[in-house]
Design brief:
The chain is an alpha+beta fold and 710 residues long. The chain has 4 domains: 2-262; 279-419, no CATH class; 422-566, Jelly Rolls; 570-708, Jelly Rolls (Sandwich), CATH 2.60.120. The chain has 23 helices and 18 strands. A 4-stranded antiparallel beta sheet has the order 3-10-5-8. The protein has a 4-stranded antiparallel beta sheet with strand order 4-9-6-7, with no helix packed on it. A hairpin with a 2-residue loop joins β1 (325-328) and β2. α4 runs antiparallel to α5 (119-128) and α6 runs parallel beside α9. The model is unreliable at 607-633 (pLDDT under 50).
């Protein structure tokens, strides 16, 4: 009756805990919790405490909870081992997990039979569960060089099977039936053979992320042997708890192993960039760096012994095949005479060597691991080396073709993106290749700040996807306000290419959403300039102008090409200090954008006639240093002060009214002008622009009236 009541409850609890564990795993992974093995060990201990301690929380219903919880743990162990077995499909290590999976499956059947009150039949399956365990150690030994085993490991390997054989014979003689004799003798001998191989297996995984799960699985197998021994000689009420402990170690160990495979990552190496190598020299560098990073990834994942075995096999192959390229301890010794061969012949040698090395790693680790490790090693190469390795070597392999194709697609996309930037207009193929060699691609999370206002630009940035907000400090309030948005194709930070340019950012650039950008840091940009890649000054000025317009809210939704077309239709006007640009009441004519300098906005407070049509006198003694008309002090009041990137005249053009205020140059000013016809066409094509102009016009009118006391 208890089983009927608690089975659905236990299943619901088990499913909930499993989903919670997966959710917690994802949450911790995002915070790099699994980067340290200490955290893995602590998490494993917590899992063991929960799995073995949960039945203790139920005093009244402890027996049925213990039975059901044991079965759930067995199912969890089988499921995790099944996923791990699939994770290493096609590799030699898969045989080890198939053996563990078979053992866990048999043990699960034994747990079910014990729950159904069939102890004799249950013991048959718990004994059979030991039989596959030696395969784990044997499969590991077949791919290991036993000469590297310590004396203790060799002694255990030779001596432990002997007591297992003797004990098995004695148990067989005491057994009452032939089946009992077979099970007792076979389980005992298999258990001792497993113990003989385990020290070598654990030693192979020392200093890797898999040592903790292997230790847990080994302890679980040891408890299984203890369970069978007690079941034969001293059956007691502790047997269900030993079975629970066995399955707890296996469930936690298999889950940790599975998660270790999921979270297995490879550090991307950083190599010094060069731009002047020939294709042959570049390919030599690329091959050496790629192999060294790939081999290091294999060593970190599967241990020094396994890596050394691969290295020794490669040495034998190199001598047999008389290679001119040798691989020793993860390093490449390249003796090819590049002067006497073409780059295609060179690539063929590298492809042969690399294919044999990949085959040896694939035999043990599986194709999924090799693909991930190769991708990390490839991503760490500078752009020119990635291009030449992908074109000449990887394209001709089954495992590297996808990597090379992915790079070719990304390379083409980035090449086209750089070529479309006005700053690089007129660059040759070779010059663009030099730029690509210095480029690094970055996926910026939402909220990432690229540069703060007033700080030097660290990089030139080209937005490939996402959105970058532009924030500036408002002079009147002292608060940051968003003044624009940059989308695909927009750039900022072109000053890094000019050694004598002012490199101070005029705004803060922040990723509004996850954003993909191409970056060229200032050091690389100046190095490119030293090697002869110089930017046209006019192109640089045009790029800065495009950047300024793209940052303005009015043009936020225009693409870089639309902004470039708009610039071609704009006029230029230089104004000296004190000169009136537009007068209040004057018929509308242009929309103005301030490219440099400062402009004061004046509104009349009393009826007056100025003495001059084009000049304003400045009286230093006037309050707030406000400009007034000569001969008529106080007749006009300074209501606003505009600077670089700000605009005026849009209200009059939009409302078909004369200019509502007088604008005067407070310093030498450079202006961009847009005639009424072009402005009207631009506004008519965009609802966002129309809405923005309405907001700005209304806000400025209210602000002017407030300052005039109206």
């Amino acid at each position: 009756m208890g089983l009927v009541i608690f089975t659905p409850i236990a299943l619901a609890v088990g499913v909930t805990l499993w989903k919670g564990a997966l959710g917690a795993f994802r949450w911790l992974s995002k915070r790099n919790f699994f980067a340290q093995e200490r955290n893995i060990a602590l998490l494993s201990l917590l899992g063991l405490a929960i799995s073995m301690g949960l039945p203790l929380l139920f005093q009244q219903w402890r027996a049925p909870v213990l039975v059901i919880w044991t079965i759930l743990l067995a199912i969890a162990a089988v499921w995790s081992l099944l996923l791990t077995t699939r994770q290493y499909a096609g590799s030699d290590i898969q045989a080890m997990f198939r053996a563990l999976l078979a053992s866990a499956g048999l043990l699960t059947l034994g747990a079910v039979l014990m729950a159904l009150k069939h102890p004799a039949q249950a013991l048959v399956f718990t004994h059979l569960a030991v039989f596959p365990l030696p395969i784990v150690g044997i499969a590991n030994a077949l791919n290991d060089d036993l000469r590297r085993n310590t004396r203790l490991e060799k002694a255990l390997l030779l001596l432990l099977p002997l007591p297992g054989f003797i004990g098995g014979v004695l148990l067989a003689r005491w057994a009452e039936t032939l089946l009992e004799a077979f099970l007792a003798a076979g389980a005992t001998f298999s258990f001792f053979v497993f113990l003989a191989f385990i020290p070598s297996l654990l030693a192979a995984y020392v200093h890797t992320r898999f040592i903790t799960p292997w230790a847990l699985l080994t302890l679980g197998a040891t408890l299984l042997g203890l369970f069978n021994a007690l079941a034969l000689f001293a059956p007691s009420e502790t047997l269900p708890w030993i079975l629970l402990a066995t399955l707890s170690f296996w469930a936690v160990g298999s889950f940790v192993y599975l998660s270790a495979g999921w979270r297995l990552s490879f550090s991307t190496p950083s190599w010094e960039r060069g731009f002047t190598l020939s294709a042959e020299q570049r390919l030599r560098h690329a091959f050496a760096r790629f192999f060294e990073a790939l081999f290091e990834g294999f060593r970190l994942a599967f241990g020094d012994r396994r890596a050394q075995s691969v290295d020794d096999d490669l040495d034998i192959i190199a001598v047999t095949a008389d290679w001119d390229v040798e691989l020793d301890r993860g390093r490449v010794r390249d003796e090819l005479n590049l002067k006497e061969m073409t780059v295609l012949e060179q690539a063929e040698r590298y492809r042969e060597v690399l294919s044999r090395a990949i085959d040896l790693m694939d035999n043990w680790a599986g194709s999924k691991f090799v693909t991930r490790a190769a991708q990390a090693a490839y991503d760490g190469l500078p752009w020119p080396e990635r291009e030449v390795l992908g074109r000449y070597v990887l394209t001709g392999t089954t495992w590297g073709g996808a990597i090379a194709h992915q790079f070719a697609s990304a390379h083409g996309e980035q090449f086209r993106a750089l070529r479309s930037v006005p700053l690089f207009a007129g660059f040759s193929q070779e010059m663009l290749d030099q730029l690509l060699a210095a480029v690094r691609r970055s996926d910026a999370a939402s909220g990432t700040t690229f540069v703060k206002e007033g700080q030097p630009y660290p990089d030139f940035a080209l937005v490939m996807g996402g959105e970058v907000e532009v924030w500036k400090i408002d002079a009147s309030s002292g608060c940051s306000v968003m003044v624009g948005e940059l989308k695909r194709g927009a750039t900022f930070g072109s000053q890094v290419f000019l050694p004598d340019a002012e490199n101070e950012a005029q705004a803060t650039y922040r990723a509004a959403v996850p954003t993909d950008v191409l970056l060229i840091d200032r050091v690389s940009a100046l190095k490119l300039a030293e090697q002869g890649l110089s930017l046209n000054r006019e192109a640089t000025a045009a790029s800065r102008l495009s950047q300024m317009l793209a940052e303005m809210p009015l043009f936020a939704e225009l693409s870089p090409h639309q902004i470039e077309a708009l610039i071609r239709r704009m006029g230029r006007q230089s104004v000296s200090k004190g000169q009136i640009i537009v007068r209040q009441g004057q018929p509308r004519q242009y929309f103005y954008i301030i490219q440099s300098g400062e402009v004061g906005v004046l509104a009349k407070t009393a009826r007056s006639e100025p003495r001059s049509d084009s000049e304003v006198a400045f009286h230093d003694g006037a309050p707030n240093y406000k400009p007034v008309y000569a001969g008529d002090k106080g007749s006009e009041k300074l209501v606003a002060q505009l600077g670089k990137g700000e605009h005026f005249g849009e209200t009059s053009l939009f409302s078909n009214q004369p200019y509502s205020a007088t604008c005067v140059a407070l310093s030498p000013v450079e202006l961009l002008t847009l005639d009424e016809f072009t402005f009207d066409r631009l506004i008519a094509t965009s609802h966002q622009m129309t809405h923005y102009v309405e907001q700005v016009s209304s806000g400025r009118l209210k602000d002017m009236r407030r300052k005039l006391g109206q």
